[in-house]
Amino acid sequence: MHPILHHDAGREAEILHNACAKAMAFLEGLERRPVRPPRRAVDVDAEAFRLPEEGIGAEAALDEFWARHADGLSGSAGPRYFGFVTGGGTPAALAADWLVSVVDQNAQLNGDTVAAALELATVTQVRDLLGLPAAFTGSFVSGATMANLVGLAIGRQWLGAARGIDIAKSGVAALGPVRVLSTSPHSSTLKAMSLLGLGRDAWWPVAALPDSEAIDPAALEARLAEAPDMPTLVVANAGTVNTTAFDDLPALVRLRDRYGFWLHVDAAFGGVAAVSPRFAGRLAGWEAADSITVDAHKWLNVPYDSAMQFTRHLDMQLATFQNLSPYLSAPVARPDNYLHLTPENSRRWRALPVWMALRAYGRGGFAEIVERCADLAALLGRRLEELGGFELLAPVTLNVVCFAPRTSGDAAAGRDAFLEALNRDGRVLCTPTELFGRPGVRAALVNWRTRMEDIDLAFAAMRDALDASGVMAAGAQ
């Protein structure tokens, strides 16, 4: 054994205690850590780092990393990171995630670990948490992008089977042109279309309801009638990224039953709203979908990377992702045979953090997180609107505040100047967007740590950034 590796083998406890001490220091300072580190801390000159001929050992490497790069770590796990749709890690999920690395299980159905059985139990619990019927099976993947890809891939196979074609065997060219109908597809859907050989041009845009990101069912039916026999995938939204719009899923199910398309529901973060009695009605109809995406590293607040895909069509999923090799388990259609159900062969045991979080906090704990985030988002929206220097670009209906500064000049330049000032301040992070052709700003609240005092700090930072940017229209306040 290499002498440094031999040395580290005898000091594993000290190494892990060192890592734990640094992790605790990070967590204890999380609320004070800038959500966006200074540029000097995040720019790393890769050429300055050379592979050493001889290593320095785990403890020295850990200390070097922390000394050099800790200041470049974002406070994205904290309560005022409102960029993208980013959760944190609850204590239970974080502890489980550490254990996942320690026990390092092969999460396939191998007969030598409990990993696959516990994943099936976790998927079943999530399905029950969200009110989905037992007809759905599911598995863990890395994120919503991969979950959307899996759902559309199964749909592609189903479209072929309906026409006597095995797409997994013959390729998508054997099916001919396929269209994907949607109003506001997430960018990951378009990426999935590219990866699946459908092509981004296969997206046929569908008109939205007035002043909304939601599908107009009448416009969808008109689109379907343009080519009633064309293989079709419809991608519905259960929570768009700008306005948290939910498509009218019962109406889409009725159209699916009439026209015979595949209905995929992208419920990356909005699906978790089903745990709340206040918001569960917005998911009405998704129980009849063909495939569903739900993200775990958003509102379920487990560490990256973790999401789930659900489908009613296990046979089509097996046909799509089966992996034939004499040293692997046989491709049998059972819901825990994960080697044959997702794109990955090697899979991290993503189920354990979700299992432990569900056991730790239960239905009531996650309902409280969802409702608290929604209440705080509504409060932030009201305060911004009442200030006068901002305008809401859409009503706050769940957990996203989409707004813009009232500027005296170019709207995009004013928005960018405001965000630059907000980033320099470091107390809160939001991301730019565009809604109905207007430049805007998004604040998405999904972190379990976010409380009333964080809204106070975030609002103060936004007000100060508006003043500092100098873009406010005359008389706006």
List the helices and strands and how they pair.
Blueprint lengths: L2 H7 L2 H17 L10 H4 L15 H12 L21 H13 L11 H15 L7 E5 L2 H18 L5 H4 L8 E4 L4 H9 L7 E3 L11 H10 L5 E6 L11 H11 L2 E5 L24 E5 L11 E5 L2 H8 L29 H37 L2 E3 L7 E6 L5 H15 L5 E5 L2 E7 L7 H18 L8
Parallel strand pairs: 2-3, 2-4, 4-5, 5-6
Antiparallel strand pairs: 1-7, 6-7, 8-9, 9-11, 10-11
Quick description:
With 477 residues, the chain is an alpha/beta fold.
How many helical elements? Answer: 15
Ranges where pLDDT stays below 50 over 5 or more residues in a row are none
Q: Largest sheet at a glance?
A: 7 strands, mixed
Order of helices and strands: HHHHHHEHHEHEHEHEEEHHEEHEEH
Structural class: alpha/beta
What's the count of strands? 11
For this structure, the quaternary state is single chain
Strand sequence of the main sheet, in spatial order? 1-7-6-5-4-2-3
Radius of gyration: 24 Å
Net shape? globular
Strand content of the residues, in percent? 5-15%
Percent helix among the residues?
40-55%
**C-alpha end-to-end distance:** 70 Å
Report the mean per-residue pLDDT as an integer. 96
